[in-house]
Each structure stands twice: as C-alpha cells, then as structure tokens.
Amino acid sequence: MKKWALMLFVLALSVGLVACNSDKASNEGNDSDSSKEAAIGESVDYEIVGIDPGAGLMKATGTAIDEYELTDWKLIEGSGAAMTAALKKAYDKEEPIIVTGWTPHWMFSKFDLKYLEDPKGVYGDAESIHSIARNGLQEDLPGAYQVLDQFNWTSEDMGSVMVMIEDGDSPEEAAATWVEENADQVATWTEGVNKVDGEEITIGYVAWASEIASTNVIGKVFEDLGYDVTLRQVEAGPMWTGVADGSLDAHIAGWLPATHADYYNEFEGDFEDLGANLEGTKIGLVVPAYMDVKSIEDLK
Ligand code: PBE
Description:
Layout: H1 3-29, H2 33-43, E1 47-49, H3 56-67, E2 74-76, H4 80-92, E3 99-103, H5 107-110, E4 113-115, E5 127-134, H6 137-140, H7 142-150, H8 155-166, H9 171-181, H10 183-190, E6 200-205, H11 209-224, E7 228-233, H12 236-245, E8 250-256, H13 261-267, E9 271-288
Helix pairs in contact: 8-9, 8-11, 9-11
Bound molecules: 1,1-dimethyl-prolinium (PBE).
C-alpha cells in the first residue's frame, strides 16, 4: 500500500473509532431510568411467563399488572412444567426472562434466582399450605382424617423431595425414599392411627412441583397404612370443587390465606380446613440473578 493510502486508512479508522466511542458515551449519558425499563420490557417482549390459569399466582399477577400499571405487558398462560422449561432455556443462555414463581420450589436450588421486590404488597406476605378435607371424612375414614390432621413438615423437607424428582426420580420413588429416610417424622403423622385393609381414599392435587411432591409423600404414607390410594391430578378449581362436592376426599394444597382466598371463600362451609401442613411459602415474580432489575416497579 502506498504511504498516503495507509495514512488515509489509519485516519479513517481512528475517526470511525472516535465516532463509535462518542456514540456510546452519549448513549450512556442518556441512559435514563425509563430507557432502562423499556430495555427490560423489550428484552423479554413484555412477556411474563405464567403457569396454569387456575393458580392463585396467576390471579395475583393479573392484579400486579393492574396495580403497577404494566399496560404493555402480557401474562402468558401455560403450566408449571412449561414455565420451568422456559426458565431453564433462558438461564442456560444467560438470556433475560421473567416468570411467575413460588417457594418452596426446586428452581431456587438449581438456578441463581431472585424475587422482584413488590412494594405494593400485591403478592401478600408469607403464607401457609393447608390440608383440606371433605365434610364427613372424619366419620367415614377417621384414620385418614387423623393423618391429614397430623401431617406437618417444612419447606426443606418438601424441597428435598422436589429436588429428587427434578433429578430424575419418579414422584413415587422420591416419595418412598423420603418416607423411608424420615421414618421418625412420618411416625408423628401416623401416631395413634390404625392400619386399614384396602379402604379407598382419593386425594386431589394440581401438577405444581410442590404439590406433586407433597401429595406423593402423603399418598405413600396412606399406602403403607393399607389404604387403596388414588392421587387424582386436576386443575386448581376442580381440586377445591372436588373436595366441596365430596368427589375428592381431601387435598393438601390450600395456599392460604391469600393465594387460594377466592376458592376458600367460594366453598367455605363445604370443606374442613385442617390447618397448616407447611409454613413460610411465598409467591411472586422471579428473574435470574444476572438480570439488572430489582423491583416490579422497574417494569413500568
Ligand atoms: N402455586 C403453587 C399455586 C399454589 C401452589 C403457588 C403455583 C397457586 O398459585 O395457586
């Protein structure tokens, strides 16, 4: 290359670099909150990855969209499994994603995640999971009723079953392993309860990771006591309806007082609330920790 041509080339290159840099600088200077927030929205197509429409979490998220005036945002319906599949896919590529999430859930042990702050308190405070029996269960199946009444464990207990399932055990296998390894604790649930000979019991549940874990554990406990157990997977509405109309004997998936408040109020009187079997749950919007967003307010 001729000397002048080389000089021209170097000059062009440096002018280009300077232009690029000043572009970048002015962008940074303009980086107001609103452009950052628009960037978050755009980066996820203004979509919140939801779960099954009957979940209390979906209703709460609808309320959050209203209360925080997230007018451009859409809540995508799906299932718990579809939500975690989308989360895993995004997480593996370190892409942005916003999901509806809850605790206890194995996703917090597999991924580094955070809840978005909820300054308006739309998602409520920590709550409990209650055991809900049909009216008349105590007379018909007193032993089963007593087990449900005595059933009580922690988020860590439930979490360990969930992780076994996520790691590849079938729900039945994971439940059997947990029941075997925690015989002392299980003995407190079955204390004073006699074995039976094939009495039928039907427990309803929704295919949420947390309830797959708990329901299979309680199913295994009933099986070991001699019950003929059916675990019936349904949607959230039919789970509450089924206990109210007696087609299900019980469920152990009542998230209260807030998440299932509508179901609770609709059927009140038509079921028996046996109280909390697990305390300290949480629901909300969840993002990977690598995302630069802190609060639901930042989405507006
Ligand atoms: N969940 C899990 C349910 C209750 C259990 C939080 C997804 C719900 O939102 O109804």
